[in-house]
Amino acid sequence: MSQTKALKVRATLFCILVGIVLAMVAVVTDHWAVLSPEVKNHNATCEAAHFGLWRICTKRIVMTDSTDKTCGPITLPGEKNCSYFRHFNPGETSEIFEVTTQKEYSISAAAIAVFSLGFIIMGTTCALLSFRKKRDYLLRPASMFYAFAGLCIFVSVEVTRQSVKRMIDSEHTVWIEYYYSWSFACACSAFVLLFLGGLALLLLSLPRMPQNPWESCMDAEPEH
C-alpha cells in the first residue's frame, strides 16, 4: 500500500472510530427521546420522561410558567426516578413504560443495536489484524462490518422513531409533545460515519484498477 493510500485509510479509520464512540454513547445512554404531558393546572407538579434503549427516567417538575402547556423542559430541577424496562429486568417496576411505550419496538431496537456492536467488534478485530500482520486484504471485511453496523444503527433509530410516533398518536397515553435528544443525535451521527466510512474504506482497500487497455489487474501492487 502506497504512503498516500495508507494516509487516506488512517483518516477513514479515524472517522470510523468517532462513529464507534458515538454508537457506544447512544446505546448506553437514555436520552433518545423526551416526552411531555399536557399541563392543565399551573404551579403544580407534572411528570416528564426521557428514555433510551434499556430504561426510562421520569422527573417531577414544578411548573411556574402560565403560558407553557407542556411539562418541561426536562433540564429543570426535580425528583428523578429511573428504572430499566420490565422486559429487560422483571424485578424492576416500570409501570410508565407498560402504559406509554411499545414493548415490541423497544426489544427490536435494543436487539438491533446489540447486533451493531457485534459488527463493530468484528470490524475492529479485522482492522487491527490488518495493521499488526501487514495484511491489507483484511480491511475489506472490516469495511463491510462497519457498513453493516451503520445500517443496524439506522434501523434501530427508525424503530425508535416509530415507537415514539405511536406513543404520541395513541389514545392511551398522556404524552402530547416530544422531541429527540442528544442520544438520538449520537446514533444518527454514528450511522453516517460508520456507513460512509465503511464504504470509503472498502473502496480504498480494493486493488488498483487497470489504467491502460494493455494493463491487467495482475500488474497492480502486490498485497501483503
TrEMBL record:
InterPro entries in UniProt: PMP22/EMP/MP20/Claudin, VDCC_g1su, VDCC_gsu
Cellular localisation: Cell membrane, Sarcolemma; Membrane
Annotated TM spans: 12-34, 107-131, 143-159, 179-204
Range of residues in the leader sequence: none
GO annotation, biological process: establishment of localization in cell; regulation of calcium ion transmembrane transport via high voltage-gated calcium channel; sarcoplasmic reticulum calcium ion transport
Keyword Ubl conjugation appears in the UniProt entry: no
Gene Ontology MF terms: calcium channel regulator activity; voltage-gated calcium channel activity
Highest taxon in the source lineage: Eukaryota
Subunit structure, as described in the record: Component of a calcium channel complex consisting of a pore-forming alpha subunit (CACNA1S) and the ancillary subunits CACNB1 or CACNB2, CACNG1 and CACNA2D1. The channel complex contains alpha, beta, gamma and delta subunits in a 1:1:1:1 ratio, i.e. it contains either CACNB1 or CACNB2.
Entry's family note: Belongs to the PMP-22/EMP/MP20 family. CACNG subfamily.
Descriptive protein name: Voltage-dependent calcium channel gamma-1 subunit
Species this chain originates from: Neovison vison (American mink)
Organismal lineage: Eukaryota, Metazoa, Chordata, Craniata, Vertebrata
Name of the gene this protein is made from: CACNG1
